[in-house]
User: Fold this.
Amino acid sequence: MVIGVDDGHQDHAQSASRTEQQPREWLSRYSLRAAIESTISEFVNGHGMRQRRYRSEEKAHVQHVLTAIAVNLERIGVHLPPAPARQPRNPTALQGFFDWQRIPRPRYWRVATHPAG
Assistant:
C-alpha cells in the first residue's frame, strides 16, 4: 500500500539528474569516484579494515599504512613475470654417501611437502 500523492516531481527530478549525468566532464569525475569506491571496498571486504586492530590512533595509522603497502605489492605482483623454476639443491653429504653406497633414499626426501600431508 502506497501512501502519498505522486504528482510527477520524482519523475522530473530523475530526468533532470540523468540529463546532468551526460557530459564527459561528469562521466570522468564519476569514473574516478568509482575507482576510489572500488579500492575502499577492497580494503573493507578483502583486508578486514572495517574494524581496526589497535585502539591508539598511531598504531591504527601504522596498520592502515602497512595494509596499503601490502595491497600495492599484490597489485604490482600481478604485472611481474613469473619466477623461473628453481633448480634442485645439491645433495648433502649424507645423501651423497647413500648414493655412493647404492642405498635408496626414502621417498620423502627432497620434496616440498611433509610425508604425512
DSSP finds four helices and no strands in the chain. The helical segments are 9-20, 24-47, 57-79, 93-100. Residues 24-47 form the longest helix (24 residues). Residues 34 and 40 are 10 Å apart (CA to CA).
